[in-house]
């Protein structure tokens, strides 16, 4: 691939945006290659980690290409269809944002299920300054993520969110030193990878369903209740198997696990957090 570096592991795919001469701006070639990535993940579902090379996530869409696009290209939804496809991938997606995530780069990050950031991360949507709007999801994803007021500050008033803003507002889960960002992202994926893949897939599907409805929850749970994975995991938990990684809060009034199935709790390496698996 010309614009991406792709590493495929047993349970995840790591995709790095790599157009250093353009600060990883999203051009037509990158769109095509990201569609290829989506096709692979739809055929063989895995977790996805998205990152940017050389201290920038993606500084926007390619302005030279946007300058030449007209009505017909806009109606094709070149970027928006891609980001919708990423948002609908079967298993969770994680954006590790170092440096700028602006314009289309921000919209790509918004389309992911979770985001981590380095202290230098900056999110923004300056499209109106170029006479266009953020038409690849920001106008509604940002509202859903942060609420209408903050979304309008970003979209209408040109506010940029730095890493402190992003973690305070809940746009990112955590701010991590740049040198540890990818390691921490893998640790978060390790945590998710311990869950049943079908359970993750259906949980994401239900969580993303518009409006929400108890029947949706019931139908998804009915599928999971009949799965071999559910029975194997619960049998192992009830047997006190170390393979379950029982959770423990260690807080007053809550059960201390000590690996005991009788507690009904899950243990972690750190108090109150699941064990990440210690990925190096």
Describe the structure.
This protein has 280 residues and is an alpha/beta fold. The protein is 42% helix and 13% strand. The chain has 12 helices and 9 strands. The protein has helices at 28-43, 63-68, 71-76, 78-87, 104-111, 138-146, 148-155, 163-169, 181-193, 197-208, 214-225, 228-238, and strands at residues 4-8, 12-17, 47-52, 93-97, 100-102, 114-117, 122-124, 161-162, 174-175. A hairpin with a 3-residue loop joins strand 1 and strand 2.
Q: In summary, what is this structure?
A:
This protein has 280 residues and is α/β, with parallel strands linked by helices. It is built from 12 helices and 9 strands.
Q: Counting H and I runs of at least 4 residues, what is the number of helices?
A: 12
CATH topology of the largest domain: 2-enoyl-CoA Hydratase, Chain A, domain 1
Largest sheet, in brief, is: 6 strands, mixed
Query: What order do the SSEs take from the amino end to the carboxyl end, as H and E?
Result: EEHEHHHEEHEEHHEHEHHHH
Second-tier CATH architecture of the largest domain: Alpha-Beta Complex
Low-confidence stretches: 243-280
Radius of gyration: 20 Å
Q: Going by CATH, what is the homologous superfamily of the largest domain?
A: 2-enoyl-CoA Hydratase, Chain A, domain 1
What distance lies between the first and last C-alpha atoms, to the nearest angstrom? 27 Å
Give descriptors for this structure.
single chain, 280 residues, alpha/beta, 2-enoyl-CoA Hydratase, Chain A, domain 1, six-stranded mixed sheet, three-stranded mixed sheet, 12 helices, 9 strands, globular, disordered C terminus
